[in-house]
Design brief:
0% strand; 85% helix; PMF1/Nnf1; cell division; centromere; kinetochore; 7 helices
């Protein structure tokens, strides 16, 4: 009834046992991925910024992790909504519970007794459920495959982050080279100014000597 009410209002259905477990597995996998990209590991890739601007580097690390987490969760929720996974898993929970209750009831009736297991004795609703169960199991298998794909995509995202680290490191190395060139140019300019000053003094002394008579 709660699921029908949520469908009528357009709200997502509440999470059943299997749907909750699916979200839990995803959250655990994502948490492991984010833990692997710790600040210590991230900072070890950029020793120069980690020594001189650790706060800025940590801010970059936090933004990268937040973006990774946001993208992974958004894609996961998109897959769940597209496949209507929560509703199907909730229906599977209901069918499993009914089957368990029916099995317990049959056990109470005594061994060897059959209580309406013949197909021609089943009602339309029970036949529908019997045909629906394999489909729901297939959906669950498909969701497991999608979850595995999400793990692979998370690994690819981690590789992308690593490439970005290398690019940032190359950029910082280039900046250090530019700073070194600027410092060299400043030193050369200072030396040139000093030499030019000495040259002017020599010219002035020569002019003074030429002006004096008898020299």
């Amino acid at each position: 009834m709660a699921e029908q009410s949520s469908q009528a209002t357009g709200a997502p259905p509440p999470l059943g046992l299997r749907a909750s477990r699916l979200h839990q597995v995803f959250d655990q996998a994502l948490a492991r991925t984010l833990r692997a990209n710790s600040f210590a590991n991230f900072a070890s890739c950029f020793p120069t910024p980690s020594r001189h601007v650790p706060a800025s580097l940590e801010n970059v690390w936090r933004q990268l992790n937040a973006k990774l987490e946001e993208s992974a969760k958004a894609e996961f929720e998109e897959i769940i909504a597209e496949r209507e996974a929560v509703g199907h898993l909730n229906e599977l929970d209901r069918l499993v519970n009914e089957a368990r209750e029916r099995k317990n009831a049959e056990g109470k009736n005594g061994e060897g007794q059959k209580t309406g297991n013949a197909p021609h004795t089943l009602g339309a609703d029970e036949l529908f459920k019997a045909h629906l169960t394999p489909y729901l199991q297939e959906v669950q298998s498909s969701l497991n495959e999608k979850l595995e794909e999400t793990h692979v995509q998370n690994a690819e995202l981690a590789q992308t982050v690593q490439k970005q680290r290398l690019e940032i490191e190359q950029l910082l190395s280039h900046l250090e080279s530019v700073v070194s060139d600027i410092e060299g140019a400043a030193t050369a300019s200072t030396n040139f100014s000093a030499e030019n000053h000495l040259r002017e003094d020599a010219v002035q002394m020569d002019e003074e000597l030429n002006v004096r008579p008898g020299l």
